[in-house]
Structures
1.
Amino acid sequence: MRIAAQNEVRNPMQKPSKAISMVAAMGAMAATLVLAGCRQDMHDQPKFFPQRGTTLYADGRSVRPQVENTVGRSQLHQDSYFYTGLVDGREADGLPFPVTARVLARGQERYNIYCTPCHSRVGNGEGMIVERGYAKAGDFHTARLEQAPLGHFFHVISNGHGAMPDYSAQVAPADRWAIVAYIRALQLSQKATQADVPSGAHVEPLSSIAEREGLPAAFLGEWKIPATAETGTPTHQPLVLPSPGGDGSARTNSQPAASTGSKPAANNQAAPKQ
Ligand code: HEC
């Protein structure tokens, strides 16, 4: 009785209608073909594996040497001053394109993004990161940097300088030059006199701007790292950086490094800024 019941249940399954079983078989075949097709193509296509040899080339190397006398797309740097700031291996002066208000505005924007964290908005090297214990960044208002050729600033952004990392990955060459132009304007702005503006131009003293805008008195003071600033080190001691020369000597964030640039280090260790 029990067996018969099971058979009754199983019977419809064992003998499905012809049409259904054909559709199922075709579906399965199609799926197999599609899947198998994909896998074969992807797995068996001829290709090189990085850093592995090959029998295709006589020298057995899958990594091919660059073809001589060819230049990769977008790697043709014909205007070498634009890309290096150097002429005959020496930092040169001048911008590779005309300075316009637009270039300066772009430079100011990029400078405020990439440089102020360490150099501060006024460029005295006492930005927020320095306030938190990083090595004192360069003060652009020293006699040495005021006289430095523009190529020097381009070179520093492109290659770094002592404790400063390079910003070549973040800032494209045209923007580096825009920053350089803005730094020079920043330098001039700190020593500007009435005689520097064309006669008749309206000059408003900072104090009256501060008064009009309702800014606190501290706005007129010079930007300095507050005495309460943390050093950021667990021991609350100044951060000690390894010497850039790797000679084992160390320096702290209260001792700016001697210049490693090609210019004479006239006055980087300058006394407190005027
Ligand atoms: C992470 C902090 C940091 C940032 C961001 C930074 N700098 Fe510096 N910069 C330094 C430090 C630190 C020094 C001093 C390096 C030394 O003397 O070892 C320095 C030095 C310099 C100097 C002086 C080089 C010399 O001849 O003494 C220039 C110019 C300069 N930076 C430009 C820039 C510009 C332009 C930017 C933005 C694109 C920038 N820096 C962003 C930390 C920074």
2.
Amino acid sequence: MSDKKAIFFNSKRPKKENDRFFINGLSKVSENQSNEDINNLLKLYYTIDEVKIDITFAIKINAVIEKHISKLIKQADIFFKMSNKNNCSVESIYSGMAGIALLFKFYASKTNNKHKTFEQSKQIIEKCLKILDSTSKRITYLTGKSGVYVTAASIYLESNDHANMKLMIDEIVGMLPLALDPKTSDEILYGRAGYLYSLMVLKNLGWNDVNSDDIIRQVVSAILDSGMSLCSKENIKTTPIMYEWHEKKYFGAAHGLLGILHCLLLMKNYLTQKELYDLIKPALDYLLTLQFKSGNLPSSLNNDKDRLVQWCHGAAGATQTFLLAYEILKDTKYLIAAEQFGDVIWERGLLIKGYGLCHGLSGNTYAFISLFKVTKKFKHLYRAAKFIDWCLTNDSKIKELNRSFSMFEGIAGNVYTLLDVQNPLQANFPGY
Ligand SMILES: [Zn+2]
């Protein structure tokens, strides 16, 4: 079958549905496509047998990567020339230079250290450490100090610099009292779940001090206690754990229940069976009761607008969390829900807000990649390829954001994704 409607999909001037997303001309066509049709269309992008990227597609992707990497190298040069005086900021993974360090390390690993980006990632992270505001109370992986320290730890480990790696571990562990402080929130961007994520990265780097498991367990307990305590205080009966950020009960990955459940599921070895089945599972089931008719999730409690289809709010973050829940809890309703979220993203996920990970096309592409990894259905890989192809073709059609170089809102996250989709079975959303 020919891919006629793809002409519309790849149109020079994509049609906007509203102020949030471009119309995906393929979304209606694909409902009637057989597996054979999909496999034939996919051959333009990947080989079916080995799931290897097509050489022509790879050349197209790598040309965009190189264009963006040269911009980011210039950005790094500007950063190196800046004064080392403390500027009262955290150069975070989310929007700061630590995110560029993370990308440069990843790029080096994929390209045999082309442009010497590994050395540059070390130089960037050491400058981030120098200018880090030591009084900052930000604790998380994405927006806080632990993300800078844990990225530095990974770079030191790869440099066989165990003494400096140990210093980074001490810094992260030193943030435990702040993480356990009752005034600290729980969500990924600014709260305990985001600190827990850094501890997980540290554990994956080989952190095995005698107290490491105890530290992780203390954070897990604090998150669960906080969720139960809000339910008890507000007499909430619909779910055993609930969270607030700025007095709003968010549901999405960045600020809400989904993201917190995601981090807890990532640390499943630190949960008791009772916690898993009496707290986490009912909270996941509660979220599924909130699905809109489209299949999407609201961004917060009592918000009945079905608008946001992105990683931070709505279907893209939800896809990844429910896939993880399916893998751990083996309940097929989670897999069905994840595929429904995927359909929503396919229809409304060509976002005009940019190509970033947080509320852009890259974050949405990862949802398809995750669906493919778990289900092995080529439909999902085809959708990921189409989104990527769209972003390569419509490079200048989207809004420039304030933080246009950054990992979560800009081109660094897009480059990370473009590198990762070339090996879809090994791909992983950074920071989730
Ligand atoms: Zn966002």
3.
Amino acid sequence: MKMFNTKAFPLGFSIIALAIADIALGIRFPDRISVPNLDPSSQPLKIAVFALGSFWRSEAAFGCIRGVVRTTAGYSGGSKSNPEYRSPGDHAESVQIEYDPRLINYRQLLEVFWSSHDSRQVFGQGPDVGPQYRSIIFTNGTEESRLAVVSKEKEQTKSKSGIVTTQIQSLGTFYPAEPEHQKFELKRNPFLLQLIGNLPEEELERSSLAARLNGYAAELCPPRIQRQIDAKINDIIKKGWPILREV
Ligand SMILES: *[C@@H]1O[C@H](CO)[C@@H](O)[C@H](O)[C@H]1NC(C)=O
């Protein structure tokens, strides 16, 4: 059972109000819009992979962070080839983050990692129990390993009752999860999907905007950003021009 599966209204009152406004104003949504694609060749993006419980939530936890360009839910940390949701083998549910190192660094990503789950819980988070929900920092190279070890020690110092269970291991193969697990929180909000123009799956998976709204839908954006997006959506509805291009 996934932790947030039963949450009926993840956006709370504001989005319900927006949906009502939508009906009242008779806003027509465009079939789709094109979001400018970030050209990876013009940006020296870096990759980080973490496991911190359900990948639905993990992807949302990083999606809204400044400097995070793209997020992907997947499997990593095990040896099974081609893991699947119902048979992850020895892998952990993970999130792959593509980030712009000019805007955020690995140390800051580690802070988001620690603050987004309870690393003292053994083999799971909340009701998600099982080795696929274990906590792992995947590192690429000695500098990242060093930063991971230092941050884990710091976390252990803060934790008086409980052992930090997080493993630190070398980044191996990351297997993207099935499409239905990508941007999971956003997909539960048809209103937001419409607002960005019902992007086809492939675009949705690569879209920075979708990554951010996935965090917003789960209410996992930093409060200031959560409010900014609220305001932007309200503004769009007021103006009757319901295309959200960026947040
Ligand atoms: C690991 O680091 C090396 C050297 O910095 C880099 O070339 C490589 O792309 C990185 N691998 C991943 C998966 O990010």
